[in-house]
């Protein structure tokens, strides 16, 4: 809930905003964040609602994936694990945008990093790991070590926003390049890869919204909220790709078994 101290900070923030606006000055940021108008107990209503919808879309598509794809598919465990990692991240994103505290901020950031890394892992399993299981074990251990070091640095040394953004951006670009290269190479024989290519390209395009740092429209809708809103249909499209690709691999394995 909101304490007396929290309410005092909130009222003082809006008093300051009104004075700035009346004086013809730009809307100020407070501790690096724009002022938002609270709705009920939601500190950032648009971002919280969009995060919830992303989580709901992920959950619905996870159920659809499990209903459509038999566990025998080679990518089944990796895709299901990716879905749960994503659901966890959207849960903490919703909590953070509902109530911004030092703890919820860290959980949001760390879980988001876990999703980005798991997307790289998912890509590695699909493109390399199915043929080289020993290699994927080494790569998985490396990613887990990197995540542990990343969280330890931000928790025990310094919570560096610039470093966190740079690290996630670098991993995101690696993810983009890796998936795109695989999609382009396999486009002739795998018609469903257009879904994957569209998702990774549109995700990078949506990430540019973060550079459009403007005061919230109606004190509710900012660039970060628009980014979260834009990812909702991309979640659906990516899981649709995972369903198509997992069924393709299942059929390919079945055909190979029959041939043997």
Automatic annotation (TrEMBL):
Role summary: Involved in the fatty acid remodeling steps of GPI-anchor maturation where the unsaturated acyl chain at sn-2 of inositol phosphate is replaced by a saturated stearoyl chain. May catalyze the first step of the fatty acid remodeling, by removing the unsaturated acyl chain at sn-2 of inositol phosphate, generating a lyso-GPI intermediate. The fatty acid remodeling steps is critical for the integration of GPI-APs into lipid rafts. Involved in the lipid remodeling steps of GPI-anchor maturation.
Subcellular location: Endomembrane system; Golgi apparatus membrane
Keyword Membrane in annotation: yes
Transmembrane helix in keyword set: yes
GO molecular function: hydrolase activity, acting on ester bonds
Superkingdom classification of source: Eukaryota
Family: Belongs to the PGAP3 family.
Topology within the bilayer: Multi-pass membrane protein
Keyword terms, alphabetized: Golgi apparatus, GPI-anchor biosynthesis, Membrane, Signal, Transmembrane, Transmembrane helix
Pfam families linked to this entry: Per1
Species assigned in the record: Sula dactylatra (Masked booby)
Name of the molecule in the record: Post-GPI attachment to proteins factor 3
GO biological process: GPI anchor biosynthetic process
